[in-house]
């Protein structure tokens, strides 16, 4: 099998593996979990974006079926992203109409496909591992904090919100306080029963053939009907609200077309570029995070993912949907549910379509509090105490970027928080790099000191300052050997420092000898790796 980053033809077109019974046994129940998680998130994000509710569900359908099919990732799930709600809301308002915004979305998809073709996805290889771990833990904590109000029946904030500042004038912390003051005990009971089912149902092997999330939904619906017309009754806004389609004509009437006459509008192009960049960054971050929690440790082709996302956004724009990305909440729920292949993501898209077409009235009986329980368990699995303990044992150079990323994501939003974490992570990478450009050894030769400096395999510009400080601080009247025998590359600036030091060292009585140090080094070339298996 060959894996290429550049296009859709990734060589993994052996379709038989997707329909093996051992994979389907895992993928089909996982798709149900993703469907239940995705449904309220699609609706909530559409509501917060100022778009029709149908647009949110449509994006989830396209993200599952189209992007899921084209993507090279086996576990990531695409759909409308909470991180784009403000951009979409401002764009719809600023451009004056939803159909003009749809044109910007189509162009954004084209931009994403161009990014995939020029292999911009390789930027994902430079995300520090500690920052990705911190992002995952932060998402887990945010899920717990954001779903707590929904679990107790306070649904002022939209489903899927990940930002610290909420549209209901609260923030994450004050939203929890407000929820405690406005508890609906019917919702609390449903959430508590749902949590118990999520925790204990899988432990009974004979019963576990029925997925725990399905039992959660059945229990939630049953309890909500039992509580009806009592003091524990749920309010209308505490249920899922999927659009109810009365006929085929009504269904097709929900689709919208882009306003191509606005192609010359400069703001359309600015909006398109903004969506393309933000959606691509969030996709790459999510893809990296999903690969990290993949139990099989597969590596997803990032450039192919940008092509798949671009194609998905073009189709979404043409049909009247919202921008989509690979979404970490849905993807992590997919992983935690035990998915093995992309069939899970694709099937969840089919389920969204079937629910919209055939059973919207039944879906609207599902309480949000029972779905909150599913997301609460997902959040806990992402932010287990064992993860914090593991990162602590990795050392401060890993733990500090990890912890800063968590705090920054919780107190801002995903992209800003990760950006702050990246800066701290890069600082520690540079700090470690600066400390390891050479091996320093002092040997006594009678009364005279002999100093041996063994240069590292790669000596970059980042090592320049450390080497210069070391050389200028060497004591007088010594012999210095600078050994480059292990070095594949030495930066020209570092070579200049070494040669200048040798030239002027005699003024301090220092004798400098250079061992296997060339006058010039060629930059090592990155070679394309091809993985082959029979």
UniProtKB/TrEMBL annotation:
Localization terms from the record: Membrane
GO CC list: membrane
Keyword vocabulary terms for this entry: Membrane, Transmembrane, Transmembrane helix
Membrane spanning stretches: 28-47, 53-70, 125-145, 183-201, 213-232, 267-287, 307-329, 350-379, 399-430
One of the GO BP terms on file: transmembrane transport
Domain of life where this protein originates: Bacteria
Membrane disposition: Multi-pass membrane protein
Family annotation (InterPro entries): SLC26A/SulP_dom, SLC26A/SulP_fam
Pfam family, one: Sulfate_transp
Transmembrane is among the record's keywords: yes
Start and end residues of each SLC26A/SulP transporter domain: 24-395
Protein name stated in the entry: SLC26A/SulP transporter domain-containing protein
The organism's taxonomic lineage, starting at the top: Bacteria, Pseudomonadati, Bacteroidota, Sphingobacteriia, Sphingobacteriales
